[in-house]
Design a protein that fits this description.
With 160 residues, the chain is of the alpha+beta class. It is built from 6 helices and 5 strands, in the order ββαβββααααα. The mean pLDDT is 96. The chain binds FE2/S2 (inorganic) cluster (FES) (2 copies). Residues 37-39, 42-47, 57, 59 line the site of one FE2/S2 (inorganic) cluster (FES).
């Protein structure tokens, strides 16, 4: 099937099998391997990307379902902020919100959507939102601190 998808700001036309998952399309067809696949049960959240600005687990979607839409993966996130690093990426870096980094792309993509939707989030808000993202390395404390810092930075940048 033919699809036309805007991926990280670039129009991509492809002829793909109807059964191809979006996570497979990104990783195997486009070589955008920053989107990780950490489970086959739709539970780890490592594969989260944005579709028209909203976070989705790319392992749960067929690529044909995003025909005509805009997909942003971790590789394209900074571009949406017009910077080398998105404020949420910078916050993860500064707050040591990662160890092995496997969960990090999904965490960051989820966190950006969370921060866009939640003004002045609390620690409890962050922990609740990130229930769908599993980290096998950290105790989550630094991740939560990073998300709170990133959300605050995004709010300042947006002037809100
Ligand atoms: Fe998508 Fe785990 S790979 S939720
Ligand atoms: Fe290793 Fe989260 S930093 S899985």
């Amino acid at each position: 099937m033919n699809v036309e998808i805007l991926v990280n700001g670039k129009k991509v036309n492809a002829d793909i099998p109807a059964s191809l998952l979006l996570s497979e399309f990104l990783r195997e067809t486009l070589d955008l391997t920053g989107t990780h696949v950490g489970c086959d049960t739709s539970q780890c959240g490592a594969c989260v990307v944005h579709i028209d600005g909203v976070s989705f687990k790319s392992c749960t979607l067929l690529t044909v379902a995003v025909d005509g839409k805009s997909v942003t993966s971790i590789e394209g996130l900074a571009r949406t902020a017009g910077a080398d690093l998105h404020p949420m990426q910078e916050a993860f870096h500064l707050n040591h919100g990662l160890q092995c980094g496997f969960c990090t792309p999904g965490m960051i993509m989820s966190a950006v959507d969370f921060a866009r939707q939640t003004a002045n989030p609390t620690e409890g808000d962050v922990r609740h939102w990130l229930e769908g993202n599993i980290c096998r390395c950290t105790g989550y404390q630094n991740i939560v601190a990073a998300v709170l810092a990133g959300a605050a930075a995004m709010q300042i940048k947006a002037g809100g």
